Amino acid sequence: MQQFKFKKNILSGILTSNILASCLLCVISGIAFAEDLILPGVEVRAARLYESSPSFRETSDTASLLSDEPGISLYRAGGVSSLPVIHGLADDRIRIKVDGMDLISSCANHMTPPLSYIDLSNVNNIKVFAGITPVSVGGDSIAGTILVNSAAPEFSQAGQDLLINAQMGTFYRSNNDARGINLSTSVANDKAYMRYTGSTVEANNYKAGGKFKPSGLAAVNASTDRTKDRGHLAGDEVGSSYYKSRNQALAFGVNLDNHLLELKLGWQDIPSQGFVNQRMDMTDNDSQQYNLSYAGQYGWGNLAARAYHERTRHSMQFGDDKLFWYGATGKVAGMPMDTEGKTSGVNVQGDINLSQRDVLRVGTEYQRYRLDDYWRASPPAPAMSPNTFWNVNNGQRDRYDVFAEWEAKWNTQWLSLLGLRSSTVKMNAGNVQGYNVLMYGAAATVFNKSDRSKTDNNVDSTALVRFTPDASQTYEAGYAMKTRSPNVYERFAWANSNTMVMNMNNLYGDGNGYVGNLKLKAETAHTLSATANWRDAVQQDWQLTATPYITYVDDYIDAVACAKVGKVCAARTDGFVNLSLDNQTARLYGVDVSGQMSLFRGGGFGSLSAIGALNYVRGKNLDTGDDLYNIMPLNAKFALEHRLGGWTNTIQTKLVDSKNNVQAMRKELKTAGYGLVNIYSSYEWKYARLDLGVENVFDKFYADPLGGAYLGQGATMGTGVLHGVTVPGIGRSVNVGLTLKY
After folding, report:
1. Do the Cβ atoms of 610 and 599 come closer than 8 Å?
2. What CATH fold (topology level) applies to the domain 163-741?
3. Total Cβ atoms within 10 A of residue 64
4. Fewer C-beta within 10 Å: the chain N or C terminus?
């Protein structure tokens, strides 16, 4: 079985030819359009990224590696913190594992999603399981699973010299002056290895393809002291889209016959990251990861075990483009917010070869999560003093899972997979308090007197069958029942009497204020999906893949009016709304279509290939009749790629329909359709690679359909920013990158 990985001779995911290629599972090298990927020996279909390279990206965001995958879109947030969406379901509805670690976003705005904890220059391979996810990789999610891994260990042959590898890359993107550098080096003999990777990236605000607001000061304070105003922003400058990030990782491994023991250490420092669709910005994020794993091969099968711990210290405040000094005299210094999150886990899995036909996978998992979210007083504002505001005090979320999965290869044509997972999620939180008793005491008292101890007993199941009648066609169909318990903020965010604090609990980028609901139940999704893949018999000339799907979600957690769940929330007049959450019934359906064709190959002209993909998804709240929030409209991508020797040249088009199906409850904004053109070129030598590209060639102005509400500047704390402006996409950018390797 082939496993996709990014080639080591590129700038590891920051620069290379975006031939839509990552996206389209393309088979220019003769690899199947939708590769079969899962744990060793299992052949459940999962989307596979392009073999040759990640791509030139307009951001340095690891999630951007997935942006062109069939069925996947992105909620754009900070420059390194986008949230992936699978078939209209996003964020915690997707299980994301980074080097085997289940990581959790410790932020009331989810500024620290799991993919933000690994720099894209350190990504070696990604596996995506959409919809029909095997229970051995699923759990506590309803959309699918994304597995991200850094480089696998490399050892020298016995008796040979040390194996030494080194690579360095740098890049520049003109639109927002994004620049960065990354370094990777490793040394190994036949028994042990050590690897270091490090990267740094920094960018200014990006510019849209045209003006979308008046130019002028980013924010003006209420006092007469003009030194407390914010700086000037041009009409096309997207405020609070700057970022700076540093990542380092160490890996050690010992290889003894059929046994591998590894220790991976990670450190991340994000000193600043603006958020264009949130009212706050990230002013510091410090994270450490400790990851110990074992993999062994035995006569009966394989055994894998892992223990990990991750600690995050996260801070938010108003950044450079948002008003910092509040109050009539301009003496209230913003709104400091701090979060401390700790995630620990242990996983054990055995793959047992029952026979030549049958494999049984059994495993158990434990995850322990603790969260403190507190906001220090900001005197002399009466609404923000004298006490520390405890948004979440000792939030707890512990998960205990066991699973079993049976795979049977009945013959060369038929394969089946059956799995069952049992999951127990226990949650709790301590007493809370507001800045003061007068304004927050009543809501805090109600929360503190409530039963906050919650236990969910969840069950997942998967059934899949695959039929391959011959080398030119494959058919697959399956059913999955997947369950997800609410996250800490959905259940335990408690303040509802003040718009300012409700604004700060927002996981969606829509500008609204939210309060949680202790009565939320776990979501349960029922998915039916089928996939057909047709190709030429040798899998070199053409192929076409189509995947229709439908998902019903019982107890779908959606936004509702506060009164519906018995809460009285503060009224507002800025066009945004204050909301709560409740369990509803939802339906999502859609289709992913993708294909490729070799137009010519060989001779002195090289090769030319055409690639295309089309994605459609529709989501509906069946209880209210409202549309679901942030559903990507119909979109398509097409590309022509030419290769000749070391040259690779690509022209790509991206077409997106208008977004008219929007959620009325959240006052979601409609967006117009648009088309973009990108051009890429690269040349590769034995020890170097040069990448050039122009994205959004015609500097097209467009609104990002999943970008949310524009909150990149102004007095964002309360009601000082009016509703009605969408987040624009990035304008034209000329990109260049260089990679050297040894």
Report:
1. yes
2. Maltoporin; Chain A (2.40.170)
3. 26
4. C
